Each structure stands twice: as C-alpha cells, then as structure tokens.
Amino acid sequence: MIKLKKQVKDILKVLQEKKDNCIASELANELNIDYIVLMSAVNDLIAYKLGGFKEREIHQVSLNEEGLSYLEKGLPERQLLNLLLNENLKEITIDELLQKSRLEPNIFYVGLSNMKKNRWIAQSKASGKNKIFLIQEEFPPTELEQFLNKFKKRPVLNIDTLSKKDLKYLEILNKRKLLKKIKKTQREIYLTKKGKTISLSEIGTLQQVSKITSEMILTGSWKNMELKPFDVSIPGPLLKGGKIHPLITIINEIREIFISMGFTEIRGPLVESAFFNFDALFQPQDHPARELHDTFYLKNPKIAKLPQKDRVEAVKRTHENGGDCGSIGWGYDWKYEIAQKTLLRTHTTATTIRRLAQYYMNNDKTPIKVFSIDRVFRNEKVDKSHLAEFTQIEGIVIDENVTLCDLRGILSEFYRKMGFEKIITRPGFFPYTEPSMEIAVYYDKLGEWLEMGGSGIFRPEVTYPWGIRNPTRVLAWGLGLERLAMLRYQRSDIRDLYINPIKWLRTQSY
Ligand code: PHE
C-alpha cells in the first residue's frame, strides 16, 4: 500500500478533481501553501510515479513606470486632445499647445504625431504660423488604447496567449518604450495515468509526529512517519524566569550610592532591646512611642542582655539627671527591667546607636561614616500607605566639627543621585537629635514636596554615655525606602511592594 503524507494526499485529491494540468504557482496560491511545500509534495508524487512536472519558459510583459502613468492619465496624444476639448479649442499654434500642455517636448511631439496618425488633427503652415486643427467630432478609444487598458485588469500579460492583433499593439507599445519584459520558468504539474486513476482509499497516510525518538531511529520506523511542520511564526512560550525583586534592585542602588560616597554598610539585629531602641536614644521610659500599640514586644526571648554596666549606668544617669553632659535629664527613676524588654526594632537608629557603643568599646577615634538599609517593625494598621514592617535607610557620620550643613549636603547628594534635584529641610523633633530636620524631596511629576524622613545631630544626652563630646559630633538620619520605591515604580499602594503582584513583577526588568 502506498503511504503518503496527509498534505500530499490532499494535493493529489485536488489534482484528480481538476483533471487538467495545473500551473504550480497558481495552484500554490489557490491552496494557500508555499510554492516550495507544493513542489516537495510533487516530489513525493514522483517517487510513487503518481505525477510529475514539466518546465516551460514563458514570456510575460507588464508596463514600465511611464506606461503605468499613461494607463492612469492617458497616452500623450489623449492628454493633448483632452486639453483641446476642455478648452474648446478647434485650432491652436503648436508652440501655444506645447506651452499649455506642460509636457516635456519629446513627449509632446510623440503625442502630436500620434494625434496626426489617429487622424484627430491636421497641421498647416499656410497662415504663416505652424498650426493644428481638430478635424473630428468624436474621439472613441483607439485600438491601441483598448489594448493598453487590458493592463488595468491584468498587470502582467502572458505573451504566448495574445492574439495576433494584440501582438501588433504590444509591439507599438514596445517601440514607444512603455513595456517591461519578463522571462520566467513555469512549472506545470500533471498526474500520470496511475495518479489519475488510483483511488484515494488505496492510499494510506503517514503517521504524523512532532519529534523523532531514538527508538524510531533504531527500529527504522521513522521512515514511515511524517514530521509535522513547525510554524515558526507562533510566539514561543513566555519565559517566566526568576528576577531580582524591584525592592532589592532599589536597595542595591542605594547601597551603591552610599558606598560611592565613602560609607560602609552596617547591620544590626531585628530583635532589639528597649535599651538600644529607646533608652540609649534618650527616649523616656514613659514615652508614648514605647506603648504596645506602637511597638511589638516579644515574649520569647523576654529579656535582653544589656551592654557593660558602666555604660548602662551612664544612660540611666542621663535619663534621671542629665549625667555629666550638662543636661538636667527627664527627672524620673530609670528602671533596668524596662530597658531589658525585647522588641522588634521600630527604627534602625537602634543599629546606628550600637555603632556608637562599638566606637566607645574600640576606643576608636577615627571619623566614621556608616549606613544601613534594613527592616523595621511598627504596630500599625496596614493600608495603602502604611505597613507594619518596612525599610529604613539609616546612617551616621561621626567626626570633629561636622555641622548641619554637612548633613544637608550628604542628604541632598544622596537624593540627587536617586534622581531628585531639590530637597528641602524643615525643623522637626526627635527626642534624640538637636537640632532636628525633616527632609522632603521635590517630585516634579506631581509638582509636590514629599516627606522622606528625619535627621539631625545627636544630642549630648545620646553621645556622652559613649564618650563622644564636642567638637566631635554625630550626624544622623533615617529615611523611608518604600516611598522612594513607590515613586520609582509608579505604585500607589505600598502593599504592592510586598504582596508581589506577579503580573507587575514580570514586567520589571532583571
Ligand atoms: N528614627 C527616626 C524615624 O524612625 C528617623 C531619624 C533618624 C531621625 C536619625 C533623626 C535621626 O523616623
């Protein structure tokens, strides 16, 4: 039994129904398949002696650019005639007509001589001027024009199929240089006697597979199979590769900015003591921010280890009476138990204050520039602009004679590198800085100032327990990360940064 590819069988069916030979290119058009696909099917027919093809040279002709323009506007003789008819001119000098026609002289004279040939006009110099006269009333299309019009229906004519008369006009157009000749090899597909008479039910179809397996190769069964054609125009599957989260991307960018400004990154524990989160920052033990509704306290571990005793005592004294820093303190009984409570840090200032403790411990008096970009926790109701955990961009500079000007310079340089040209600083309040500044950046897309965080110079009450005193000072800041990320990624809901809307994340670049 003969087995053919399904498509070859379909083509055989069409050829049997047609009964006549077919021009390959026309058949490919009709079946809406590629010429090459058709010819490879014909090859399969040849292999089973069901069909074949003959090649023939054919001569075709079409109009060239000039010819096409005449097809549209009429031959020059017709254009000149129309000019005369439109202006109702029965006679005119040749010079005048040339001017009016705006044709190039050589084209004009071709038109003129053909008007004469068509016996539309007569020419006379009898009056002393070279004049022409219309000598007809009606001007039906000439046979040449009728032939030219054939190109309207079929832009390419087969010369072999033209009548003798047509050939005569073709020759005229050719002499007038209005044609383009094309030589082509045409293939004509035919069926053999076997191909014409074989019943399609006697022909099987090859099994279609999309992959050849090693087994098919071993058993040789691939020879009786047809590889399904691939459609390379179909889009491939969407590759959902892993990506760096936009928040991580912006964190890395910020990290690089501070590093480029000479800072070193520090990190501190998420589980903090109240001591470093509040006490060391001169926040009184009855400060409202310490309340349960602002701060997550922990049951386990319940008690934090405090730093060396004399430093805890120094902090205790500043709270109670100002210690030796010249302040009068808050004037209350400071309790160890409250400072030992454990909590999730509410700000990364707890981490920079740890750096002050280290500064003291190491007895290290070299200038220090450190930053941290890290998670903090607050017992807040979550909505589109609040989260219970978020990220702070924190930093300190410890150096002699540094001022608020330096602080402002660092912050504006940072925001400038993040793409914000203008920052504004306004007086603020934090228990641990004096003076304190709030920072806002100008967001040109909204034409608004947006609050970004707080900063200031640590009070003596904060620095003295760690042996830092005038003229050595500590510049400090704590800025929001998510606000920046929302602006960068055009998100209006802060939660989007954490609930991971997968569709949006996929649109973000690596
Ligand atoms: N810790 C402050 C906050 O969380 C920010 C701040 C840091 C302010 C350092 C002054 C100095 O908002």
Attribute tags:
Arc Repressor Mutant, subunit A, 21 helices, 4-stranded antiparallel β-sheet, 510 residues, 23% strand, 2 domains, BirA Bifunctional Protein, domain 2, binds phenylalanine
How are the elements arranged and paired?
Blueprint lengths: L1 E3 L1 H13 L3 E2 H8 L3 H13 L3 E13 L1 H9 L2 H11 L4 E3 H8 L3 H13 L3 E4 L6 E4 L8 H11 L3 E2 L5 H12 L3 E13 L1 H5 L5 E3 L1 E3 L4 H6 L5 E3 L18 H15 L3 E2 L5 E3 H4 L31 H13 L14 H4 L2 E3 L4 H13 L6 E10 L11 E12 L3 H14 L5 E5 L5 E11 L4 E11 L1 H4 L8 E9 L1 H8 L6 H4 L2 H6 L3
Parallel strand pairs: 1-9, 10-11, 12-15
Antiparallel strand pairs: 2-8, 3-7, 3-8, 4-6, 5-6, 13-14, 15-16, 16-20, 17-18, 18-19, 19-20
Helix pairs in contact: 1-3, 2-3, 5-7, 8-9
This protein binds phenylalanine.
Phenylalanine binds next to β19 and β20.
Largest beta-sheet details: 7 strands, mixed
Shape: elongated
Bin the strand percentage.
Answer: 15-25%
Radius of gyration of CA atoms, rounded to a whole number: 47 Å
Structural domain count: 2
Q: How far apart lie the N and C ends?
A: 57 Å
Number of strands: 20
Helix content: 25-40%
Q: How many distinct helices?
A: 21
Mean pLDDT: 94
User: What is the CATH C level class of the largest domain, in words?
Assistant: Alpha Beta
Provide the CATH architecture of the largest domain. Answer: 2-Layer Sandwich
CATH level 4 superfamily of the largest domain:
Bira Bifunctional Protein, Domain 2
Name every ligand kind in the structure: phenylalanine
